[in-house]
Specification:
Layout lengths: L2 H25 L10 H25 L4 H25 L10 H19 L2
Helix pairs in contact: 1-3, 2-4, 3-4
Length: 122
């Protein structure tokens, strides 16, 4: 993999995952209205196996063979996603379905990022 692709592809993939999560927050705000609601709890539970599956697919797609490649690639993708997330929180909070849902949707995105990190260490 060329040096450019080594950074560009994981960055684009991380940005893509963040964008899908942000759009989910915007278009399904009922999942984020109450942290004690069964929809929110179910979403949090479902996120863990989804992240594991998605990370395994990214590892195969990017042909990461060593642990160092996996950690480096995933760290680059995660950094891209978190940069976009912080910019959106500051300047585009409506993407999360409104002010009332920002805290819970951000918690869900951070939860997914944590599970993604755990899933990359196999």
């Amino acid at each position: 993999m060329s040096q450019t692709n080594q950074f560009l592809l994981p960055s684009l993939q991380g940005a893509g995952f963040w964008y899908v999560a942000a759009l989910f927050s915007k278009h399904f705000p009922s999942f984020f209205e109450n942290e004690n609601d069964s929809k929110y709890i179910g979403l949090m539970v479902f996120t863990a196996p989804f992240c594991f599956f998605a990370i395994q697919k990214l590892i195969k797609l990017n042909d990461w063979k060593t642990r160092a490649q996996k950690v480096e690639g995933f760290s680059i993708g995660l950094a891209a996603a978190l940069i976009l997330d912080s910019i959106a929180h500051a300047y585009w909070p409506s993407i999360y379905g409104g002010e009332a849902n920002i805290r819970r949707s951000a918690a869900w995105i951070f939860w997914a990022a944590a599970w993604g990190i755990i899933s990359s260490f196999n």
